[in-house]
Amino acid sequence: MSLPPSAAPMSSSEFIAALRGLSHRYWGTHPFHVRMHGGGLSEYELKIWAANRWYYQCVLPQKDAAIISNCPVPEIRREWLDRIAYHDGAKAGDGGIERWLRLCTAVGLGREEVLDQRHVAPGVRFAVDAYVTFARTKPWLEAVASGLTEMFAGHLMQRRVADMLANYSWIAREDLAYFTDRIDKVSGEGKGTLDIVVRHAVTREQQEKAIAALSFKTDVLWSMLDAIERAAAKE
Ligand SMILES: O=C(O)c1cc(C(=O)O)c2c(n1)C(=O)C(=O)c1cc(C(=O)O)[nH]c1-2
């Protein structure tokens, strides 16, 4: 949408409502997630899901490092660093990435077949790489805004833990440590990101670009699940 340069900015509450209004595009309502939460996935489908999401988990620190490298504002860089440390951990064998591997093992994958990415579907690679390229090439504020899907993630993760425990007998609570550890963190990050975006997107054009960035990210996540669903249907 192209706006006249003089278009008035939205009020903060209008802007936030426009961002939150994209929740219907979020992957919580994707048929694959609906089936996962309802207990309808086979063991094989769960494996393919976990092995493919591994690729997303792996690149998140690179995406966040790209945001930092493009951002001239010290307090944003300082705040953002924590995300990289969270996923990578303070030392090897620590961190979010390791907790994701634990979930992979619980669904029956060997470490090796996750690490060598043999199950990663082309469409997942394409979508996830597009997210990293977005962060590398767009202004930092748009890249930050694209992470606002985290606003929607806390509730979904909370439901996921309950639904997976109820529906997949071979998965124990400890196996879901990635999610149980992440629920509060992701909700906090979502609030922090929204605060940054509202403070820094002050013109109408910046606001529209932030909305478009979040919309792009919902497409990334949706496309990932489309590709996972197709890859998992092959067996
Ligand atoms: O399990 C989920 O449904 C889910 C969704 C999202 C998201 O909405 O992007 C993230 C995460 N998990 C997550 O664990 C995570 O660390 C994360 C980082 C980001 C991001 O864009 O920087 N999204 C998400």
TrEMBL record:
GO terms for biological process: pyrroloquinoline quinone biosynthetic process. It holds the Pfam family TENA_THI-4. Keywords: Oxidoreductase, PQQ biosynthesis. It comes from the Bacteria. Its EC number is 1.3.3.11. The keyword Oxidoreductase applies. Residues 18-226 form the Thiaminase-2/PQQC domain. It catalyses: 6-(2-amino-2-carboxyethyl)-7,8-dioxo-1,2,3,4,7,8-hexahydroquinoline-2,4-dicarboxylate + 3 O2 = pyrroloquinoline quinone + 2 H2O2 + 2 H2O + H(+). Signal peptide: none annotated. Pathway: Cofactor biosynthesis; pyrroloquinoline quinone biosynthesis; Cofactor biosynthesis; thiamine diphosphate biosynthesis. It is an enzyme of class 1 (oxidoreductase). The keyword Oxidoreductase applies. GO terms for molecular function: pyrroloquinoline-quinone synthase activity. Ring cyclization and eight-electron oxidation of 3a-(2-amino-2-carboxyethyl)-4,5-dioxo-4,5,6,7,8,9-hexahydroquinoline-7,9-dicarboxylic-acid to PQQ. Belongs to the PqqC family. This is Pyrroloquinoline-quinone synthase. The lineage of its organism: Bacteria, Bacillati, Actinomycetota, Actinomycetes, Pseudonocardiales.
